[in-house]
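Field log, afternoon session.

UNIT: design team B
ACTIVITY: writing a sequence onto a fixed backbone
BACKBONE:
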């Protein structure tokens, strides 16, 4: 691996390395206002939620790299410490890019980007009517990380209220992540879209401890067929198969034929591992694990 000493890099080079490596990053389309009622709307991708109790979101408003000046969002929050964080889906992508233009103070980016201004219930800044989800927030603290170009200012936001468009809720009022169609920021001009085949599920560990990859048979851990995701699913099971677990193997006869064949040991192992991978891909994880341990006797 090539190594970079960040202190030796120019700010633009350092920035591009970091934002290209850490992603995709969610986008906070932040709506703020000043004491004169002038509204600002700008996207920030140094953003995430950091607590559910209390409900806290944090985004960073960096100083401009070329002259170290602060942005209108930061100035507005110093005057009116309230912000509407609008989540961004695919249909809004080009508009938020337009809103990121550095218009003079007092120019309304809602109008420039063609977004609809809607009144929030608790805070003074408006929210974006087209956003799938909106967080009404009070700013609890601003942490300044430096006074040089590209230095961040962390905006700690207490979330007071959420607005969710009803088409993205299921019958139990849970948000459907598969339908939100959110986008995330990458490096350079790249974004990504969290929709369709880009989404996949990984079951969270249960309270019962998993056996771990270290307890899998050696022939599984050194497989050229099974990848880290495959091993992770096998290792996520709560128990090592029992002595009679072979009864779970539905295709046991063909497995025995591989065992008893004249194939080389390597080919036997690969054929068995192909069967294990097929079981994993069909979500028959317990059966795959049973086959892995049963085959350990002859592989």
């Amino acid at each position: 691996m090539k190594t970079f000493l960040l202190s030796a890099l120019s700010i633009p080079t350092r920035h591009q390395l970091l934002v290209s490596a850490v992603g995709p990053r969610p986008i906070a389309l932040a709506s703020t206002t000043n004491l004169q009622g002038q509204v600002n709307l700008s996207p920030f991708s140094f953003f995430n939620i950091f607590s559910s109790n209390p409900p806290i979101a944090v985004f960073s408003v960096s100083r401009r790299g070329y002259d170290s000046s602060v942005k209108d969002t930061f100035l507005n929050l110093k005057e009116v410490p309230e912000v509407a964080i609008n989540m961004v889906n695919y249909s809004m992508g080009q508009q938020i890019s337009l809103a990121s233009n550095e218009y003079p103070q007092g120019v309304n980016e809602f109008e420039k980007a063609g977004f609809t201004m809607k009144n929030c219930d608790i805070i003074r800044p408006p929210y974006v009517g087209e956003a799938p989800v909106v967080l009404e927030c009070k700013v609890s603290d601003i942490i300044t990380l430096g006074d040089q170009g590209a230095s961040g200012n962390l905006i700690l936001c207490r979330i007071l209220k959420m607005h969710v468009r009803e088409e993205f809720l299921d019958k139990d009022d849970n948000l459907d992540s598969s339908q939100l169609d959110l986008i995330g920021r990458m490096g350079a001009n790249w974004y990504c879209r969290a929709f369709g085949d880009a989404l996949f599920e990984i079951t969270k560990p249960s309270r019962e401890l998993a056996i771990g990859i270290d307890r899998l048979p050696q022939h599984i851990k050194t497989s050229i067929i099974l990848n880290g995701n495959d091993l992770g699913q096998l290792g996520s099971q709560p128990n090592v198969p029992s002595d009679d677990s072979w009864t779970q193997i539905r295709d046991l006869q063909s497995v025995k034929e591989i065992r008893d064949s004249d194939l080389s040991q390597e080919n036997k192992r690969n054929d068995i591992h192909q069967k294990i991978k097929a079981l994993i891909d069909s979500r028959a994880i317990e059966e795959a694990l049973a086959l892995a341990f049963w085959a350990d006797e002859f592989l």
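LOG NOTE: The CA atoms of residues 164 and 275 lie 44 Å apart.
NEXT ACTIVITY: expression trials, pending approval
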